[in-house]
Amino acid sequence: MSDSIAVQFATLEHLAEELGVLGAELAAEADLCRSATATIGTAIDGEAGARAGELGTSWAGVVDLLGQGVGGGAEPAGRGAVLPGARGGPGRPPPVRGGRGAGPVSTSTLVSLASWDPRMLGNAVGTLGAVGERLVSWRARVEDVGRTLEATECWEGPAGQAAAGALRRVSGVVTEVTAVLTRSLVDADRMVVAARTASDLAGEALAAAAAIPAVLDDRGELGPLPAVPLGSSADPAQALEQQYDAAAEQAQAAARVTEWARGALQSADQAAAAAADAVAVLGGSLGTAGGSVPAGYLDLVAHVGPGTAAPVPPPPDPPGVAAWWAAMSEEQRRRWIEDSPGLVGVLDGVPAWARDQANRLVLDRVLPGDPGFAVAVATANEIRAREEAGAVVQLYEFAPRHELVALVLGDLDTADAVGLVVPGVGNDPVEDLDDVTGDAAAVAGAAMAAAPGLAVATVAYLGYRPPSRLDDGLAGAAARTGGVALDRALDGIAATRTADAARVTVVAHSYGTVATDRAADAPGALAADAVVLLGSPGVDNDRAGFAVDEVYEASAGADPITWLELHGGQTWDPDTGLDAVPLPTEADMTHVDYLDPGRPTLQAIGEVVAGTHDG
């Protein structure tokens, strides 16, 4: 057996093990739902408790069924697991009947309402909500396995395609189920609020009735009031007046008792109704009824449906885009990539893998004679050369009509450290994309040398159009436009890495430092950990204006650009308030030498990107 075949089987085994872990995790989540159901039974009783118990039982059963989707239940019987060797979770069948909802429902008494524990109930509902939130990240991991399966050559042919397709369908089912569970939580939260009100009012009513004293029955009806004795005042008229006042106070107290008691019972009914609504949401969409669940994963799929409804268009801000993207199933995302690649490819907040797929579709569709064809040729040539050399390349941005390109070396979605290389005057994607990408590669190499084993991704960022000539570099229009674009790009990376943040460093050279300076002018903090300013013609912001933890600068003695103040204060001048940490340079370095291999500046930049610089 050749080494390549062994590696392929090893990859398959790794993916199968990951699916097994995912299945086991959902089994544990189902156990949490069952624990929440038991807590509900302790917290409240009566009809509200019964319906809430059905809710928890349904959650547990549905989550169990989702685990079957990656452990062998995703395809019709006889086809086995999604991947050979995938074990999934423990494989116990979900409960067929729900315990509390199966028998007669008793009505809670005022005494029992007063003993309800709304805090415990809220914690139980919170547990269900936490399980629902974790389903989103769980689904993302399933999707990662599917994408790895499609990207690798470890399993070619119909069987491999079927396995990847099965995982995409699991993603769609989990997306739909999560949406239904989330809707049920809205009603469950109403139940908690109503239960808290019922318990509080019942306690007030019972305490007030005892103070009269009078008997308060289970229906909230107050028994006969005790006679108010005539006072012992020597003045009969005064004694009679006191008796009337006491009787009036007693009547007012009785009225409050009746109001509180009836309010408690009404709130208990509202809690029961809210719980019933939550159960009905699940029953109508997922096939649960009375705590029962579908017999198997495929039965659940039949209730959920294909889940291919088109989502709404994306919102305008990167965090909103990230949330919009995360809410979709893998099938829905594929449809967006295939139907609107030009949109998906430029959306800050969409993960790099999806933008890469979308932008490559756009790249393939640029024909000779189209505006931007020269940009497309240069981009395709650079990607081909890098990939043939063994590099991982992501086409992160591609708008050839506007001469905008951003290439990622590495995996931007998983890297521990990210460096954005922002070039200056005279760089364009037709003539200079290879040089800018070479600079990004140099920065990546220096970062990996500074921290061996660190996952690094660097971006050759021509996502703005630098001025083409030195005299044009005196103007600020390109920097303003570029600053807006760079700020959104950084926000987009941050939005896609909220669960697993990367260290992000902007490495800007020459006019790129001016664009970075303008990016810092945008509302909010710059979404970066560090900024490196190389050969800068001056910046306006001081240290507080950049609003990042670390600012570094390098100004070579033989670089006349750094002697001027074309766009603000000199980065090396203490009077600017930038308080930048100087990086080492050499006496013979000029304006174009900062990223040259062998120069101490590049080594120091690598340390900054890796987070190991001692400055």
Can you summarize the main beta sheet? 8 strands, mixed
Residues in helices, as a percent range: 40-55%
Order of helices and strands: HHHHHHHHHHHHEEEHEHEHEHEEH
SS-based class? alpha/beta
The low-pLDDT segments are 1-7, 72-80, 87-106
- Strand-residue fraction? 5-15%
Please tally the helical runs, counting DSSP H or I stretches of 4 or more residues.
17
Looking across the biggest beta sheet, what order are the strands in? 1-2-4-3-5-6-7-8
The radius of gyration is 33 Å
How many beta-strand runs? 8
**Cα distance spanning the termini:** 51 Å
Name its key features.
8 strands, alpha/beta, 615 residues
Describe the overall structure.
It is a single chain. The protein is an alpha/beta fold. It is built from 17 helices and 8 strands. It has helices spanning 3-43, 46-71, 110-114, 118-151, 158-211, 236-286, 297-304, 318-326, 330-339, 341-344, 352-365, 373-388, 433-450, 477-496, 511-519, 543-546, 600-610, and strands at 393-399, 404-409, 417-422, 456-462, 503-509, 530-534, 550-554, 581-582. Strand 1 (393-399) and strand 2 form a beta hairpin. Helix 14 (477-496) crosses helix 15 (511-519). The radius of gyration is 33 Å and the shape is elongated. It starts with a helix and ends in a 5-residue tail after the last helix. Residues 1-7, 72-80 and 87-106 have low confidence and may be disordered.
